[in-house]
Amino acid sequence: xxxxxxxxxxxxxxxxxxxxxxxxxxxxxxxxxxxxxxxxxxxxxxxxxxxxxxxxxxxxxxxxxxxxxxxxxxxxxxxxxxxxxxxxxxxxxxxxxxxxxxxxxxxxxxxxxxxxxxxxxxxxxxxxxxxxxxxxxxxxxxxxxxxxxxxxxxxxxxxxxxxxxxxxxxxxxxxxxxxxxxxxxxxxxxxxxxxxxxxxxxxxxxxxxxxxxxxxxxxxxxxxxxxxxxxxxxxxxxxxxxxxxxxxxxxxxxxxxxxxxxxxxxxxxxxxxxxxxxxxxx
Length: 282
Known about the structure:
Layout: H1 4-10, H2 31-38, H3 46-56, H4 61-82, E1 87-91, H5 101-108, E2 113-118, H6 121-130, E3 139-143, H7 149-154, H8 156-161, E4 169-173, H9 185-194, E5 201-207, H10 214-224, H11 236-240, E6 247-248, E7 254-255, E8 274-280
Helix pairs in contact: 2-3, 4-5
């Protein structure tokens, strides 16, 4: 496996200037690195793998759900690009892997612009290294925290890349379940959506315990208590609230594999523990 401490210390920015060492906190499990492990990636530490294995031990649907979420991202981004969206604000992007937002969008529209935002230093290190050869001005990787929506909207990097007076796709894939109720996730989403013009879109995927017993539903969050972010699973009704005032696109809020599938239905599709939906701002 790559030595991430060395990567963080040695990585140079696009201007050839050394960046300060990133505090990767390898001893503390991080949701982005755990998710990378679920997907079969190698950008994770022993603490991430140990915590992820505890989650995977809960049942085969954990990895199936992670893969389904990734596939939903690609289908949703492709759909949005086909609707004419040229700007994407992807918050909580996670560890880069094949089929990222910019790769998917730019297959439809080469000029699509994507701002990736994440609060994990390892995401920034790998994201910027991955994008070193990308066309300047089309993609950026920025450090930000979803819990500070006003700071995101005012971020110079976001403002430089995206024109917030033109339609934007706000992508919140597998991130809102790491925002506690105390941080008012509904207000966070409203703040971001209110700042976007008519014709913008909101895409969300969110973990749920709807298909588990209360005891089973509590096991995943219990494991994440030792991670850098806590897991708050929400019901379909709770996730639906994030789309208040928006035009939910067909087929509505469904499990991730059931959102405009591009493959034959599988027996587990209706039980994948991820709600997924895309809505348009009128």
